Amino acid sequence: MRIYDFDEKQGKTIDRFGSENLTVTGLLGASGDTPLVCMYIGKNGTVGRHDAVSQQLFMVVSGEGWVSGADGERVAIRAGQAAFWEKNESHASGSESGMTVIVAESEQLNMRL
């Protein structure tokens, strides 16, 4: 067994797509079938609008915020909920109070819910 740190201190600040107050820590590398990252969206933070490069599952593990799809309408989301975007779907997310999210990306995510 190995223990890994993936807290915010291990992450990299991201400002791509106009993102603000966003730190991302890699969990599984791009060599796997389903890369995983942990996103720390800080207070008044955003993940700027961009198109999904593959199917994407955005799983909120703590905090709350909002997500939006192609229509740009913000939908509230909280810990214990997930958003799913199709490949090429324009999307964005953010939080006023902060949230931690695990994101899985793959060409073939098979949702069981």
Oligomer state of the chains in this structure: single chain
How many runs of DSSP E, i.e. beta strands?
8
The CATH topology label is Jelly Rolls
Stretches where pLDDT is under 50 for at least 5 consecutive residues are none
CATH A-level architecture: Sandwich
Supply the number of helical segments: 0
Q: Tell me roughly what share of residues is in helical segments.
A: under 10%
How would you describe the shape?
globular
Largest sheet: 8 strands, antiparallel
CATH superfamily: Jelly Rolls
H/E series, N to C?
EEEEEEEE
Number of domains: 1
CA(first)-CA(last) distance? 30 Å
The share of residues in extended strands comes to over 45%
Assigned CATH class:
Mainly Beta
Specify the structural class.
mainly beta
**What is the alpha-carbon Rg in Å?**
13 Å
Mean pLDDT across residues? 91
Protein name: Cupin domain-containing protein
Task: Summarize the entry for a quick read.
By secondary structure, this protein is mainly beta.
What does this structure look like?
With 113 residues, the protein is an all-beta fold. The protein has a single domain (12-106), classed as Jelly Rolls (Sandwich), CATH 2.60.120.10. Helices cover 0% and strands 58% of the residues. It has strands at 12-14, 20-28, 36-51, 55-68, 74-78, 82-85, 90-95, 99-106. Strands 1, 2, 3, 4, 5, 6, 7 and 8 form an eight-stranded antiparallel beta sheet that branches. The protein is globular. The protein starts with 11 loop residues before the first strand and ends in a 7-residue tail after the last strand. This is Cupin domain-containing protein.
